[in-house]
C-alpha cells in the first residue's frame, strides 16, 4: 500500500511547488462548481419552496420527479447538453461546447434537482408549523415563499452544500461537455480520471486529496458563516 | 465458474472483436473471459498489481518493459491493425489522400486546424506524439489553442472531434465501429508508421501466485493458434477486415 | 378596508377528519357589533370553529359566507387571529410585527410608527430587538396580540388570548380587547376563564363535542343557560361520563375519575 | 426510587444568555414536604427557574445541588416536568406515555396498566389511539400531565399546568395534583391563577425580573406580602413602569400603557 | 436533434424486446444500488443522528467533514477501494475486485456521508424542538437517538432518496472497482458510458432514459409508502 504514501507525497509536492498547471485546474474547478451552485441555488431554492407550498394537480408527480432527478446520471446529462450544444444541435451556433460555460450548464442541470428536492423537504417541514399563522396574516404560498426561505436559511445551507458536493465531485458530465481539454476545460475531477487511465494512481489520489481539502475548506467556511449568523439571530 | 480476467484497452473492446471472439473461445475451452477495458497505462497497472491474468494491449515498448521487469512471462504477437488520420470531409488543411502521416500532421499544424488528441499517454497517444516529433512540430507549445488534448479514451476523443470538426488519430477498429462520425471521414491511411501491433502477455505467476496461469496460457495459446488467428482474421467490421493476425508461432 | 365584510353566516358547517366528525352541523350568524365569546370544554372544537370562521380550514360540508359588500372579494385581508399556540417567525419581535404589516401592504415609513405603538400597547417595547422565539410564553402571546392589533382588522379572532398571562397583563389585555371593540372591530374569542367571558361578551356560544348547543345573549346565558350541559359547564361541573356518551370510538369508558 | 433526592439547594444561581442576566443570584432550598408555587409576571423567569431546578439548563454561576442520599447519583430519574408548551412525540397518545415509561425502564407488561390508569385519570382514554400532535391544546396539556404522573416521580415540576384547561378540567387537575402530593411527591409549580396558587400552595416564591424577591409560607404571603412588588402583584396591579426601572437595555420606556 | 427521437426509439425497442442483456444489467444495477443504499442507511442514519445529538470535542470538524464528504469524488473513492481490494492491496486475498460486492462497497463509501449529513440536519432541527422534553423524560442523546429517527422518518426518506440518487447515477467508482465486465459487473451507468465511448449516443441516451424511468419508479414507490404511512400516523 505504498500508493497511499505516494499519494500524499504527490499531493504535497504539487502544492509546495505551486504547480502552475495545478493552480489553473483548481481555479477552473472552483469557478465552474461555484458558479453552477450559485445558479442552481437561485433556481432550486425557490423551485423547491414552490413545490412545497403550492397545491396543484400533478404536484405529487412533481415531487417524485424532483426526488428521482437527484439521481440524474451525469453521463446522460452530459450527453444531452453535448447534443444540444454540438454544432449539429439547436444551440450549436453559440459555440459553447468544450468551454467552461458548457460545463456550468451541465452541472446546473445536475444539481438543481438536488437543491430543489432537499429544499422542498425543509420548507415543507417549516410550512407545517407556519402555515396557519402565515395564511392568517394574508400570506398565500406565493408571499410565504420568501419568508420561509429566509426562516429556513440555516437548514437550507445543508441542501446547497449537498449540491456543491455533487458539482465538485462530478466527472461524467463535465468530461463530455468540457472535453477535458488541457488548459481549456480540464478540472480536478477530469484530471483525476485522466491520471487513473494513465495508470498514475498515486498522482490521481494526490489530486483527489487536494480536491477534498479544497471542498472541506469551502464547507468549513460555509459552516462558520452560518454559525456566526446563528449567534446573532437565534 | 471457470474464468480468467484480461486487462485490455478500450479500443480493442470498442471494436467489437471480443464480443465476436470470446464466445467461440469459451465454447472451445469452457473458460469464460472477463475483459476489463481501460486506458493502456491503467491496464498495465492492473496487470502489475496482479488484478488480471492476461494483458492484451498495443504499446510494444511498455509491453517489453513489463516483461523485462518480471511482471509478465513472455510477450506474444497476436495481431495488428492500423491507425488512420480522420478529419472533416471538407478537409480545411488539405491533407486528404496523402500517404505520409507525418507530412499530413505538419500541414495541419501549419494551417492551425483544430486537432483532437487523446492526451492520455495511451498507445494511440504515444503513436501520435511520435508522429509529431517526426513532423518536427513542438506540439506541447500549442496545447490549448488549435491542438486540444482531451485526456480521455478513444471514443470520447472522437466524440470531441466530431463536435469540433477536428482532425484526430484513431485506430481503425474503433473508427469503423464508431457511430457518431458526423462530418468526419478517413483522410490519411496506409503509412507504414501507422502500423499498430497487439501483444498478449501472461501475468507472471511467480510474482502473483493466484494468477490463473494454466487457463491464461490456454487463452494465449488459443489466440495464436491456427483457429484463433483464423477467427481474428475473419472478424469484419462494416464489411472490412479489422484486425490482421500476425502470430509467429502458429502451431 | 372601508367596505364591510360582515355579516358572516355559517350554514350547516361540518368538519370531518380521518372519518371522525369534529364539527357537527353548526348553523349561526355573526352580525357587526356585539362581542362573541365561544366557550366549551377542552376538545369541544372551539379552536377548529374559529379556524373555520377565519377561513383557515374548509368545512367538509356546509359553507361559511361573508355576506357584507366586501365579503365576496377578499375577506381574508380584513381579518386577523391570535392563535392559542402563537407561531413566531425566526426574527426579532419588531420584525414579526413588521412582516405582518408588510403583507398587508403598508409602506415602510408608516410601519415603524405602527410597530412602535403596537409593541408599547402590549408592553413589549423593551423586547423589540429580541429574537421572538426565545420569548417567554406569555410574552409570545402578547406579541401575537400586538401583531394582530397592528393590522386593524374588521374582525378579530382571539383563541384564549390570556391563558398564559399574569393577572395584570390579563387585565390590560381585556382593556385592549375592549378598546379594539370600541374602535369598531368585531371580536370573536374563546376563553376558559368564565369571569373573563362574563366581562367581555355580548353574546355567548356554547360548544360541546363539536356541536353548537347554545347561542344566546350573554346576560341571559349566564343567568340561566337553557342547555343542561351548558348549565353544568357554567357551574364548573361538566363531567362527560355523566352527561351523554357519544364517544367517537363508541367504546365504553366507565372510569369514574375521567375528568372531561 | 426508594432513596430520597431532596432537599434541593440553589446556591447563588444566575443565568446569563447573550449578555443578559435572566436569573439573578437566586438562593433557596426545597425540603421534602410542602407544595411550592412560583408566581410572578410574564417574563419574570419562572419557566427558566423551573428548568434550572429540573437540571435542563445549567446556571452560568452558582449551583443547584440535590442533597438527599440519592441526590448525587441520578437525580434526573426521580423527577418529572410538565412543560408550559408541551411537546408531543409524533405518535399516538398512549405511545407518548409508553415511551416515557420505557425510558424509565418499566417492562412492557406493567406499562400497559400504568398507561391505562394515567390516561383514565386525566380523561384521555377515548383519545388513546389518536396521534398526539393533533390533540387540542388543553388535551395536550392533560396528556403531558398524564405522562408525568405515570412516572411517579419524587419531585414534579408543573409549569402552568391548567392554563389552557376548561374549569372542570382545571378543578380535576388540581385534585390530581393534590393526590400526587398526598402520595408523597414534592410539587413545585407555577401558575398565573392566584386562586389556584392559594389553593395549592404551602409556600410561595415570588419572582420578578429574574430575582427571587420573596419566599414565604403561603398563608403569610397572601395575607401580607412583605415585598411591595409582590403586594402589587397579588392585588393585580404590578405595573413595571411605576416600580423600579432596571430595563435590560437601559432605554427609557415611558409609555403609560405599557402593561407589564 | 434526431438523436433524441432515436433515443426514445432505442429505449422503446430495448424495453419491448425484453432484451436479455438489458434485463441482466438492470437487475445488477438495482441490486448494487439498493444494497448500497440499505447498508449506507444503516450506517448513515444513526451516524448523522449521533453527530446531531452528541456534544464532543471536534464535533464541528466532524460536521464540516460530513458535509464535505457529500462531495467525495467517485473516481477517488473507486481508486481507494481498488487499491484496497487489489491483489497487491491488504484485502487482495478476498478476491473481491471486479465483483458486485466491490461495487457495493464503493457506493456505500460514497453515499454514507450524504445520508449522514442530511440526517444530521433533519435530526438537529427536530432535537431543537424535542430536547428539553426528552431530557426531562430521562433520555440522553443516546436514548433519544432512536426516538428522533423514528419521529423524523418522513423527512429522512428524502435523505435516503438523495443517497439512492447518487448511487444509481454514479459511474466513476463502479467503473473502476467493477471493471464494467460484460455479464459480471456491467450496470446501467457503465453501459451508458460504454455506448458513449462507442459513439452510439442514441443507445446511450435510451439507456439513460430507462435508468431515469427506473429510479423514478423507485422514488414513486417510496413516496407512496410514505404517504400511506403519513395518513395512518400523522
Ligand atoms: N387535524 C386533526 N385531526 C384529528 N383530530 C383533530 C384534528 N384537529 C383537532 N382534532 C380534534 O378535534 C377536537 C377539537 O379540537 P379543538 O382544538 O378545536 O378543541 P378546543 O375546543 O379548542 O379545545 P381546547 O380548549 O383544549 O383548546 C379535539 O378532540 C382534537 O383532538
Ligand atoms: N434562550 C433565551 N435567550 C434569551 N432570552 C431568553 C431565553 N429564554 C428566555 N429568555 C427571556 O427570559 C425571560 C424569562 O423567561 P421565562 O420563560 O422564564 O418567563 P416566565 O416567567 O416563565 O414567563 P411566562 O409567565 O410568560 O411564562 C423572558 O423575558 C424571555 O424573553
Ligand atoms: Mg383550543
Ligand atoms: Mg413561563
Q: Can you describe this structure?
A:
The complex is a heteropentamer, with two copies of chain A (234 residues), one copy of chain B (251 residues) and two copies of chain C (260 residues). Chain A has 234 residues and is mainly α. Chain A has a single domain (2-233), classed as MetI-like (MetI-like fold), CATH 1.10.3720.10. Chain A contains ten helices and no strands. Chain A is globular and about 65 Å long. The model of chain A has no long low-confidence stretch (mean pLDDT 90). In chain B, strand 10 (236-237) and strand 11 form a beta hairpin. Chain C is of the alpha/beta class and 260 residues long. Chain C has helices at residues 46-54, 93-103, 108-121, 137-150, 167-182, 194-200, 218-223, 228-234, and strands at 8-17, 20-30, 36-39, 61-66, 79-82, 155-159, 186-190, 203-208, 211-217. In chain C, the strands form two sheets. A six-stranded mixed beta sheet of chain C has the order 5-6-7-3-8-9, with helices on both faces. In chain C, strands 2-1-4 form a three-stranded antiparallel beta sheet, covered by helices on one side. Chain C starts with 7 loop residues before the first strand and ends in a 26-residue tail after the last helix. Bound molecules: adenosine-5'-triphosphate (2 copies) and magnesium ion (2 copies). Residues 46-47, 84, 159 of chain D line the site of one magnesium ion.
Return residue spans of chain B where pLDDT drops below 50 for at least 5 consecutive residues: none
The amount of beta strand of chain A, in percent, is under 5%
Q: Roughly what percent helix of chain A?
A: over 70%
* Bound chemical compounds: adenosine-5'-triphosphate, magnesium ion
Count of individual beta strands of chain A: 0
In percent terms, what proportion of residues of chain B is strand?
25-35%
Tell me the layout of helices and strands.
The complex is a heteropentamer, with two copies of chain A (234 residues), one copy of chain B (251 residues) and two copies of chain C (260 residues).
Chain A: H1 2-16, H2 20-53, H3 59-69, H4 74-85, H5 100-136, H6 141-151, H7 153-169, H8 172-178, H9 188-198, H10 201-233
Helix pairs in contact in A: 1-10, 2-5, 2-6, 2-7, 3-5, 4-5, 4-8, 5-6, 5-7, 5-8, 7-10, 9-10
Chain B: E1 3-9, H1 10-14, H2 17-29, E2 32-38, H3 40-48, E3 54-57, H4 60-68, E4 72-88, H5 101-111, E5 115-117, H6 123-135, E6 147-149, H7 154-164, E7 167-171, H8 172-177, E8 184-188, E9 195-203, H9 213-224, H10 226-234, E10 236-237, E11 240-241, E12 244-245
Parallel strand pairs in B: 1-2, 1-3, 5-6, 5-7
Antiparallel strand pairs in B: 3-9, 4-7, 4-8, 4-9, 4-12, 10-11
Helix pairs in contact in B: 5-6, 9-10
Chain C: E1 8-17, E2 20-30, E3 36-39, H1 46-54, E4 61-66, E5 79-82, H2 93-103, H3 108-121, H4 137-150, E6 155-159, H5 167-182, E7 186-190, H6 194-200, E8 203-208, E9 211-217, H7 218-223, H8 228-234
Parallel strand pairs in C: 3-7, 3-8, 5-6, 6-7
Antiparallel strand pairs in C: 1-2, 1-4, 8-9
Helix pairs in contact in C: 2-3, 2-4, 3-4
